[in-house]
Amino acid sequence: MTTKETLSEPIDAVRKQTEAVKRSYQDYLNNPFEAKHVHVLRANIRKLRALLNFLKPTIDPALYQELQSHLREAGRGLSPLRDLDVLHVFCQDFAVKEPDLSDNYQALFNYLGILRRREQRKTFNKTNSQHFDNMLKSIDILLSDKQILQTKHWPQYIDKRLAKKQDKLENLSKHVDEMPYEALHDTRKKAKKLRYAASLLKRSTEQTLKEIIKSAKHIQADLGKETDSHVIERLLSDLSEKAPDEAVQAILLLIQKQLKLS
């Protein structure tokens, strides 16, 4: 068990996660064609956002808003690319399961490849590049001044805040069957935030956080199936309307129909 002598400060977790964002961003710059790099970069940005959100009461309000704004915009610029990667994997699996359903699979994957390269180029435009530059500069400002994270009895602060967030999440999870999609999606985001914060701060408290992390991960995974299906169905519908030819449109509509039947 972690002892008081080995407890780390939350600023150490922020610094470590910042380095993870920088590394994954460099990996993406080096090879943006690799879907894994997009996924890891977005996940690392979300983890840092979750950590900062957890520490929000201890951070200068103006700097907090600036940090979250830049992190949010940087992640948002990658979202269309990540959605296409998720759709591509879904269609790959579908083609393996239903190889004889259509003669238009090749046209479909060629179209998805064109769309991905188009979205990939957008991530390097002036606006998105500036978002990433601003994000990294703002994080460096936070890390350069430890006093921004005010001195607290960190184990007590972390334990109390985790317990409060866990209670809220568990109460929400009891009503997911009654929720509209947006509320369900928001509940999944809360589960992610709790899981990420607990995982990144587990060395800053004497409390064992395994059960909190496990519970949040379980809720996130359960709701993820529904949110992923929603995203895939929306993309299939949107892309079928914009498809360049009838062959691609036909296979997109066919996959969409099979998804609704499953």
In short:
The chain has nine helices and no strands. By secondary structure, it is an all-alpha fold.
Order of helices and strands: HHHHHHHHH
Shape: globular
Low-confidence stretches: none
Count all strands and give the number.
Answer: 0
Strand content: under 5%
Percent range of helical residues = over 70%
Provide the structure class: mainly alpha
Mean pLDDT, as a whole number? 89
Largest sheet: none
- Beginning-to-end CA distance, first to last residue: 46 Å
Rg on CA atoms, Å: 21 Å
Count the DSSP helices. 9
Task: Write up what this structure looks like.
The protein is an all-alpha fold and 262 residues long. Helix content is 78%, strand content 0%. The protein has helices at 10-30, 35-54, 61-97, 105-122, 126-144, 154-173, 181-201, 210-242, 246-261. The longest helix is centred in the first third of the chain and has 37 residues, at 61-97. The protein is globular and about 65 Å long. The chain starts with 9 loop residues before the first helix and ends with a helix. The mean pLDDT is 89.
